[in-house]
Amino acid sequence: MNFERFAAMVEAYGGAPDRWPGAEREAAEALLATEPQARALLREALALDQLLDAVPSPAVSAALTGRILASLPERRRGLRAVLAELMPGRPVWQPLAGFAFALVMGVGVGVLWPVSAPYAPGADSESALMAEDENLFFNSGFGLEDDLSSEDQT
Amino acid sequence: MVVDPDGELVQRIAEGDAVAARALMARHLPRVLSLARRMLGNAADAEDVAQETFLRAWNSAARWRPGQAKFETWLHRVAINQCYDRLRKRRGVALDDIADPVDPGPPPGSALETSDTIKAVEAALARLPERQRAAIVLCHYDGQSNIAAAETLGISVDALESLLARGRRALREMLSGFVRGDAQDEPGSTRKRKAGP
To answer: Measured between alpha carbons, how far is A13 from B157 in angstroms, rounded to an integer?
Structure first.
């Protein structure tokens, strides 16, 4: 890097090397080590940088955050969005895996659990109970997405 | 193909995910507000710009196609353009006129020095032509690399450097009474920023 380019760079980006273009930073620092004129330019640039840095960043108010969030339009909410709100900060696969595990365990226990004859309901009423359970599960879980979708369509 | 760290959040926002919206705001609202505040010099207008910028983000999320540009770049461009619009509406004063020097105020070391310095710097920024101000806000205050800032402004890196150099020269002249020239001769003595490319 020659002195002219160093001067142009400092004139544009200031005196802090982390604001300089990455590809030129090393060469500029090498020039600084050997060139007193470059160091003088750097001092001037840093003085202006320090003045500019005196102006603090504005704080984000809770009221502004609230207004912006309130402007988030209601859209079709996918299952992922619903689960993310129910369990914020956790990966979506965790509640899904929980539902799947509960389903498999429920079906497995229902099929394999030995039921003694005197307390077993009749075949017809057992099927009816299982059907009711499935409806309850789907209505409270996966049915939610469809419900919200149909609300959006109205 | 541009890797966009906000891509997944934007996709979830399109589905109405308020958690994703909060996360995007935590990441970008302070910077958008700061950018608008420095561009406009007015807290209320800056909040209006920030609010409008995120409203556009919500409304555009479903149409966002990842891979072409970073969402962050688009967001900053929306904010900058809104600042330009407001400045043009305000314009009764020719912003591109050469500014007068800023009153240097009390001498260094006085009790009023800090607040007066802040006011002077804000006044000097406000007197810069808006494109020079935008370049300085993006590179100096927001810490964007030259490539990112040029993309946000829709100009070449050479054009950005020209805006920055003219802006800084004008600021140095306007703030000549405040520049002490005793900055340390140590590279990087000012606040650390994001590294350039």
So the answer is: 12
* Distant-in-sequence, close-in-space partners of A105: CB < 8 Å, separation ≥ 6: none
Chain B residues lying within 8 Å of A49, measured CB to CB: 140, 183, 190
User: Does A66 reside within a domain?
Assistant: no
Q: Write the DSSP symbol of residue B63.
A: G
Partner A contacted by B188 (CB < 8 A):
yes
What is the extent of the structural domain holding A135? 76-153
Structure tokens at A22: 């990455």
Distance CA(B99)–CA(B90), nearest Å, equals: 17
pLDDT tens, position by position, A49-79: 999 999 999 999 999 999 999 999 876 555 5
Residues A44 and A7 in one domain: yes
Residues with Cβ within 8 Å of B77's Cβ and at least 6 positions away in sequence, in order, are: B152, B153, B154
| A137 assigned to some structural domain | yes
